[in-house]
Amino acid sequence: MAASPETSAPDSVPLRHALGNIVREPVSILWRRWNWKASVLSIVFRAPVYLAASVRSGWRETFAALFVESAYCACTAGFYGAFVQAIRDAQPAWLTGLVITLFLPAVLQGVEYGVHWLRGTQHLHAVLLGSTAVSAVSSLFNWFVMKRGALLVAGEGTPFRRDLRRLPLLAVSFAITGPRWIWQRLRISVTKARSRPTSTNLTAGQD
Does residue 89 sit within a domain? Predict the structure, then answer.
């Protein structure tokens, strides 16, 4: 039976242990838990980038680039989703976030550049600039929703149709999380500044 979103997350483990488990059991963690949900959404979100960037080269070139990108995403996004699923609750969270949003996407973007360069994709720099931006945002979003029990596979999550129903609200929550965090930090800073005794108050107290 699929786990509910509230109970799907495993106990937090140190990031080095989570990464060590992947190194020791890559077949079990990455291959058997290949995340087809992440693969489908990656194709859906990244295809428009290649369509917009390659359309000036003609429809034949555009569809060729789309085919290459779809094949690439179908393979790598599933493994990347499995990787994120495996370490989504690892600690410290800030280091896990760096691995998920910077290190691994940088490696995958380098591979993607090589694939399209070998194929001779036109306007490659513009294409990959847009693809990099999408990768950065989608990496954060995948991490965000997986920590809340969505887009999980291998018995840890819920049916895909339920995930899709949850995605709009999760997207809104994701969009406001950054501004809300900044606002909370500002409020804390202002509160601390107001509660800190001033030099005038200290002098008056001594008198």
Answer: yes
